[in-house]
Amino acid sequence: MKLFFQRALPAALALWIIALPPAQAVGCYPPAAWTLLDKKPRNASATDIVADMAKRDVVLLGEFHDEDDQHRWQVQMLSALHVKRPDMVIGFEMFPRRVQPVLDRWVKGELTLKQFLEQSEWDKVWNTPADLYVPLFQFARINRIPMVALNVDNALNKAIREKGWSQVPEAQREGVGRAAAPVEAYRDYLFDVYRMHASGHGAKEDKGTKAAKTDPAFGRFVESQTTWDRAMAEALAKQVKSAGKPLAVGIVGSGHLRFGHGIPHQLRDLGITNVGALVAMPADAECKDLPAGMADAVFTLPLQEDDKPEPPRLGVRLEDAEGAVRLTEVTAGSLAERTGLKVGDHLLEIAGTAVGKAPQVAASVRRQPPGTWLPIRVKRGDELLDIVVKFPAKQ
Fold it and tell me: Is residue 260 part of a domain?
């Protein structure tokens, strides 16, 4: 589980934002407008975009997970597509397959929101506040649109990163088939991500060495990421091939759809070729962040001054470990690193309260006001350490 991990993917994308007066800065494309990302990008109308996407078998709505307005944009797109294709399903990267029965009960109206989030183990399976996604969940429930869990459990991805696909017993693969080999451009992209994780001390590297594409660890990392893509592609393809052939819309991180790699590549291997991919970027985005072919189209988001404070971020990855919470990654330059937390530390207590699950840590950090101190008791090897995290004051 990542605990408010800072923006990790170098080309991850943000989405829909409320319009501002025209005095704002403008970057590559005009705000509140669609642009087709062909070889020569050109303007397009929302009507044409929706009409085109409604003819697809799968539509992927890329997102930057921790920004409010991107999810409002997704609701807007779901609403527009639902008018054209009322026979629709919505797939969510956020949920592993094992919680599918909970999603079914939510859509049927059998659960309260609190029950839904508890039973789907939201704080365990995803690392972003649920409030950001509630409008999407409510849209599905109100319209009785089936929600589909696209992902696999974190334990499978972790096992592949550590041992490789071939060393994971078939019974533990959750029914996912072997991923189609990625194209070299996608391997390059994943290598950038891998190097960033390595620089954040998440990869086990010898001191003084640098990550290389020939590293066995990088090979396993690629297998893990492509299995992730494959699992989501298989879940979407299953819906497309089901009776009635509904429009399958995927709510996924934009890193999984860029340039037709990731999920689209795996869908093609499964025989699903009529796939649409939409993303959005803020109005001050530079043109280099919006290259031709990155997606079918981009919606440019008008800028907005947000007075909502950023949630506190430690910059760590956590996992549950025998009654404690273990740090498996510490981001370079993060608050955690500046405080002195290290990979391998076991968090035992926060503010004097014992913690045994990663969601407890996430909740404690999330509640921390700016400018305050949070005492943490850590076990490092045989040592017990008392560390104080000093959250910066509100700017």
Answer: yes
